[in-house]
Hints:
Layout: H1 8-24, H2 37-47, H3 52-65, H4 69-74, H5 77-84, H6 92-103, H7 113-116, H8 124-134, H9 144-154, H10 166-175, H11 181-194, H12 209-212, H13 214-222
Bound molecules: iron/sulfur cluster.
Amino acid sequence: MESSSLHHRDVRRIREIVLSWGKKNYQEYPWRDPDRKWHGLAAEILLQRTRAQNVVPVYAEFVDRFPEPEDLGRATEEEILDVIGSLGLHWRAPLLKKLGQELTGKESIPHTLDGLKELPGVGTYVGSAWLTFHAEKRSVLVDSNIVRWICRLLGREYDGETRREGWVRNLLDRLTPEDQHQTFNYALLDFTMNVCQPTRPLCEECPIGAEFCEHGRERLASD
Length: 223
Ligand code: SF4
């Protein structure tokens, strides 16, 4: 039977390894500035299903063209697409316009997941990412890269629906620390993008490696 959990000793050790890796390999993306509140929220929408490197120049122009929510709310969808169109997923343009309209005149962005999810374009992932990165509120992140990583750790099969399985969030909840959740979550995003990559995970140089990872153990044993 496939395992869906880890011993608490392994949870603690894997958390420490991810935190340590994250501190040494933090990626300086411009939207990670914690003071960029509403731009940080818009960036999370731009980052969905999109490579971070591609978002970098688009985000710079976005901030330049739409310094305040009202600038975004007043823009036409064509004007928004002119900035973000190169990223594809054009359905984001009307959502961003509505987000700008919704945030216009508001003193602050909601600090609860339920409140955030009432905003256009904000679902569980975007809301959770904003809370941990811009509101200093612990949140558990579940995205496709992170799900792939956790399934590899346990030697489990995964597909596009695995993220909805309860054990995934439960295990990530156990792994996410109370006090360094922001460092941990940034580390997870960077680690699963750059080390535990989609097609060729770098198991040979991975600090988790064969000791804690079923998939890594198999790969390293077969090399
Ligand atoms: Fe990913 Fe390989 Fe590291 Fe496991 S050992 S976490 S599969 S890179």
